[in-house]
Amino acid sequence: MNFWEFLGSRHQQLLTDAGQHASAVFQCMVVATLLGVLTGVVTYRSEWAGNLATLATSTVLTIPSLAMIGLLIPIVGLGVPPTVTALTLYGLLPIVRNAIVGLRGVDPALVDAATGIGMSRVARLLRVELPLAWPPILTGIRVSTQMLMGIAAIAAYASGPGLGNEIFRGIASLGSKNALNQVLAGTLGIIVLALLFDAAYVLLGRLTIPRGIRA
Q: I need a surface site. Which of 92, 94, 129, 198 has the fewest CB within 10 A?
């Protein structure tokens, strides 16, 4: 059975795995974005707090993904919980770092002008600082998503959802006639999903970032 015949015979299962893979990454990115931006907002005004937040999230990223999931299994069990926990933790660093850099890069004159017209600190943050910091924050979200697409495949080790199951099944049955097809289908599926997510972020950037800021 060649690769195209394999895809035809397993397309339903592959689509299900792809949907679960995309869903897991999307949901974890939503949580990581909220936590990452909040961390950036809380820490960007202080040099030591910003450095501490960056150090903490970068330390998480040094832990091998397989080891991270293995350590989480005794705590949260198999399946979705270790997948969601690991992906969320791994997705924090680029978002936290870019949120801090973006917020620190806002022109102080604009903040002073907002203060001068009577804006509160919260209003300045929501209406001036965060919108101006959004381009680097979005870049951090894109980087995190690309990382998590690959890391999510390891979730199959803990009976997690996604295309990693195809890859692991193929590796476990090396030598069988469809082993290579399974690995290839899972890998190409992850690449396609990563490209689709990135295209969606490009579109989001065009819709949410004013042309003057993009320039």
A: 198
pLDDT tens track, the chain, 215 positions: 677 877 888 888 889 999 999 999 999 999 999 999 999 999 999 999 999 999 999 999 899 888 888 888 888 888 788 889 999 999 999 999 999 999 999 888 888 888 888 888 888 888 889 999 999 999 999 999 999 999 998 888 777 788 888 888 888 887 778 888 889 999 999 999 999 999 999 999 998 887 766 55
Cα–chain-centroid distance for residue 202? 15
Q: Angle of helix 179-208 relative to helix 164-172, nearest 10 degrees?
A: 160
Q: Which residues contact 187 (CB under 8 A, 6 or more apart)?
A: 163, 167
